[in-house]
Write a structure and sequence with these properties.
The protein is mainly beta. It is built from 3 helices and 25 strands. The structure holds 2-acetamido-2-deoxy-beta-D-glucopyranose (NAG) (12 copies).
């Protein structure tokens, strides 16, 4: 019964995607059981030296592929999916797994500029190779990674766009899983499958409910001392002008944090693959607050990647006294521009004057302005956190009655 279920998914994928020229590949092990399964569409653009001028070769991953050279993988070798086509071209991806998850590791594109069909007039005829980190996110074993959104990868002379991707490595018992693990980009919103025609019955639709963002703990350091701390979960609500549709994106809590600390100005930059968001804090009259937000986001709309840049440097959110931290546990919707609203969850920030390397006394967004409780500076970390928590709880209780709220 389970086998049948797996097969059904395969059929569905093949039929559902064939309109968009998705390619299906299966790698079988010695026992003839499927060990790697993939469906994907790839557009390649290769910049090469032609007859006197630089040329761009553009082509798609063709339907006729050979999986020759693929490896199922065992205790000593990682699985490798190799998709060979034409005369000496191939796209391969190897996989790794640990603790119940698997992910794509390195994506290698090999191309042969001797192939006059794809590279007419190429001056340097040779086999070239580019290797990039695959953009495949880690997903649980025995689930099929699915990413309908387009992802662009560029390296040296090669640009690849991958979309309508479904991949499962480490397939158990030869049964392709029915459980899909969607990529981050697909989770953002309803992604329309990229097909040239729409068939009402087989169109796969994705309408996942948006989970709240994970809280990231971001730290900037000045030498070895923390100088800016920000614990928060962030979600961006984007409105794109064309059709007024909105798209909600969660910021990865493992985003890389950078920026700079200063006495009266500090910036925190969070970056992941598709998103860069910058927060600018300033000090005015012994108060600090969030003055600017700037975001550069790549989103995929109808199959094309669009850069969305939004900034506002005249905001006033997250205000607290210099020397304190700002805390807010309720969800906040920070209006940045007509296109961008930042939804912030469980915010705790301190961009200035970190005396002990940890958060100072917190001013809670629910507390009265003048409700301030002094704390012995230099208290041990555990004690400090405990006290801050207690103050927070008291603050909450007191305020339940007066209902006064501020950002
Ligand atoms: C494995 O597949 C090949 C070709 O598809 C077939 O000839 C062979 O009989 C199969 N072997 C087993 C054990 O199923
Ligand atoms: C290269 O360009 C020159 C002049 O444009 C032309 O005469 C020659 O035939 C071209 N060679 C090839 C291989 O296309
Ligand atoms: C090739 O592509 C690059 C970048 O995509 C572009 O800047 C360049 O103009 C293209 N060249 C030609 C000859 O189309
Ligand atoms: C697969 O590769 C091997 C050696 O690399 C070769 O001998 C064999 O002919 C290839 N098979 C196909 C179907 O291309
Ligand atoms: C792989 O390792 C597991 C446990 O370490 C062992 O039971 C299994 O026999 C090994 N398989 C191979 C093919 O070596
Ligand atoms: C590259 O392409 C040329 C011409 O099509 C072919 O003769 C050659 O064997 C190819 N190289 C490889 C490594 O496949
Ligand atoms: C995948 O291939 C790359 C380069 O070919 C290699 O550096 C990397 O270690 C491989 N990953 C695994 C998990 O084997
Ligand atoms: C041709 O390409 C190869 C591989 O990228 C490179 O090593 C070689 O230097 C190139 N030759 C010329 C004349 O550009
Ligand atoms: C694979 O087969 C084993 C033994 O029949 C079973 O315990 C296991 O649950 C199966 N795994 C999957 C993913 O179907
Ligand atoms: C982040 O900091 C909070 C306190 O604000 C703590 O409860 C949580 O465990 C930290 N998370 C990580 C992953 O360090
Ligand atoms: C995103 O913005 C739209 C339009 O302002 C609003 O209707 C929607 O509720 C917002 N969604 C979230 C999760 O903030
Ligand atoms: C892929 O290339 C085809 C043909 O060049 C084009 O129509 C399509 O829009 C491209 N898709 C993406 C996602 O770039």
């Amino acid at each position: 019964m389970q086998r049948f279920g797996g097969l059904w998914v395969v059929l569905l994928l093949v039929v559902g995607f064939s309109l968009s020229k998705a390619v299906e590949v299966e790698v079988h092990g010695k026992d003839n059981k499927t060990c790697i399964y993939a469906v994907l569409s790839v557009n390649f653009t290769v910049h090469y030296e032609g007859n006197g001028t630089m040329e761009n070769a553009t082509f798609q991953l063709p339907n006729s592929l050979s999986s020759n050279g693929s490896i199922c993988g065992d205790n000593n070798s990682a699985p490798l999916l190799k998709m060979g086509f034409g005369t000496g071209h191939s796209l391969s991806l190897n996989f790794s797994h640990s603790a119940g998850i698997f992910s794509g590791d390195v994506l290698t594109f090999t191309y042969n500029t001797s192939d006059a069909k794809l590279f007419p007039g190429a001056k340097n005829t040779s086999v070239k190779r580019v290797a990039v980190n695959s953009l495949m996110e880690s997903v649980p074993l025995n689930t099929i990674y699915t990413c309908r959104s387009a992802k662009a990868i560029e390296s040296e002379a090669v640009a690849m766009v991958l979309w309508n991707v479904s991949i499962q490595a480490f397939v158990e018992n030869g049964t392709i899983s029915k459980n899909e693990s969607f990529c981050k980009a697909d989770m953002s919103t309803t992604v329309a499958p990229i097909t040239t025609q729409t068939t009402s019955t087989l169109t796969p639709t994705v309408t996942p409910t948006k989970p709240p963002p994970a809280v990231g703990n971001y730290t900037l350091k000045n030498g070895s001392d923390p100088c800016l701390l920000a614990n928060m979960g962030l979600q961006l609500n984007l409105t794109y002008t064309d059709d007024n549709q909105t798209r909600v994106i969660n910021i990865d809590s493992n985003s890389n944090a950078s920026g700079h600390c200063g006495d009266e100005e500090a910036t925190l930059i969070l970056e992941d693959i598709d998103t860069t968001i910058q927060f600018r804090f300033i000090v005015e009259q012994s108060k600090f607050f969030l003055k600017g937000v700037k975001a550069n986001i790549s989103i995929v709309i109808n199959g094309s990647t669009i850069a969305l840049n939004s900034s506002n440097n005249n905001l006033r959110y997250w205000q607290a006294s210099v020397g304190s931290s700002y805390m807010c546990h309720k969800e906040q919707r920070l209006m940045v521009t007509d296109q961008l609203v930042v939804n912030a969850f469980n915010v705790w920030v301190q961009p200035f004057e970190l005396k002990t390397g940890t958060f100072s006394r917190a001013e809670d967004c629910k507390a009265n302005e003048n409700y301030i409780v002094p704390i012995a500076v230099g208290a041990a970390l555990g004690a400090l956190i405990l006290i801050v928590l207690v103050i927070y709880i008291i603050g909450r209780r007191q305020n339940r009655s007066n209902g006064y709220e501020q950002f």
